[in-house]
Amino acid sequence: MITYKVLKTNDEMELVQKVEQDVWGISPIPTHQTLTAVKHGGTVIGAFDGDKIVGFCYGFAGFENGQVSLCSHMLGILPEYREGGIGEELKRQQKQLATTIGYERMTWTYDPLQTRNAYLNLTKLHGVCDTYIEDCYGKMEDGLNGGLPSDRFQIDWWITSDYVNQFVNKGYDNHKVLVAWLYNDQHLPYCEDFDSEDFTVLKDTAYLVPVPADITSLKERDLNLAIDWRLKTRQMFKALFQAGYVAIELVKSNDESVHHYLVVKKNSVNIPQ
After folding, report:
1. Tens-level pLDDT at each residue, the chain (273 residues)
2. Cα–Cα distance between 240 and 12 in angstroms, integer?
3. Closest by alpha carbon to 127, among 101, 145, 109?
4. Whole-angstrom distance, CA of residue 123 vs CA of residue 248
5. 238 Cβ neighbours under 8 A, 6+ residues apart
6. 43 burial class (0-12, 13-18, 19+ CB within 10 angstroms)?
7. Are 190 and 225 in contact (CB under 8 A)?
8. Is 93 helix (H, G, I), strand (E, B) or coil?
9. Cβ partners under 8 Å of residue 207, min gap 6
10. CA nearest neighbour of 118 among 133, 128, 132, 131
11. Where are the alpha helices (H) located in 54-114, listed in sequence order?
């Protein structure tokens, strides 16, 4: 049985460091930094299997455009404990704690081509995104990020809103696929070429944007094709967000190598504008 605990002590922060190292293979955040963050509006929550820490989420207080938010900076789960809903529950525990502290908004970034994260952040948690950050962290060489520019979606999670807490799926039945995709000779998905100027005259309320279902596997098999997906989806999302659209869902396909983001006109979604 997995249990969850708000972490506050130096010894607990050292436990978090071990998970960081196991998950990402990087030097962990110094405990003096995480402890200071926790004392000033930040949060660290651990997931435990008995006495063993198996995951955590970490956030610190942020300030942007005159608005305070909780920046949920890291969420990590040991590989053998993934696919069990721990990530989703960690976010919900963090949401509850953030609401108690007084936050109305949480924000974080993730790679838009990592569809597992997209499904959690948008489809399950009902975060939204209208901000695309190109090469957010510069060159990264860890196993998850190596080989591609570190582009990121910035998620806005309006944790006190009706959109999040009383979610109603509007359906958006008339959505169109923005750009077509096909299989190449190796049965790998590729995105057709397009003219981004066409995106300046978009009028429909909703569109579907294709992304590889498993960018990690695609990157291993054909790095150049994975880079092509990065650059083309970058163009699509930046143009859509500039035109007043917001990403609200990751729509999984049943048996294809491509999933789709659902993007809709921002003024059609009941979130703070």
Report:
1. 999 999 999 999 999 999 999 998 889 999 999 999 999 999 999 999 999 999 999 999 999 888 899 999 999 999 999 989 999 999 999 999 999 999 999 999 999 999 999 999 999 999 999 999 999 888 766 556 667 899 999 999 999 999 999 998 877 766 789 999 999 999 999 999 998 888 878 889 999 999 999 999 999 999 999 999 999 999 999 999 999 999 999 999 988 899 999 999 999 998 887
2. 43
3. 109
4. 7
5. 132, 134
6. buried
7. yes
8. helix
9. 175, 176, 177, 178, 240, 245, 262, 263, 264
10. 128
11. 86-101
Nearest Cα neighbor of 182 from 212, 152, 203 is 212
> Which residues, other chains included, contact 224 with Cβ-Cβ below 8 Å and sequence gap of 6+?
none
Tell me the one-letter amino acid at 114.
Q
| Measured distance CA(80)–CA(54) in Å, rounded | 9
Tokens encoding 8? 């506050």
From the list 210, 225, 214, the residue with the least C-alpha distance to 180 is: 210
Please give the angle made by the CA atoms of 266, 268 and 269, to the nearest 5 degrees: 75
For strands 2-6 and 128-133, give the pairing.
unpaired
* Amino acid occupying residue 19: V
Helix residue ranges, H only, 102-172:
115-118, 162-165
86 in Cβ contact with 2 (< 8 Å): yes
Helix (H, G, I), strand (E, B) or coil at 201: helix
Residue type, 273: Q
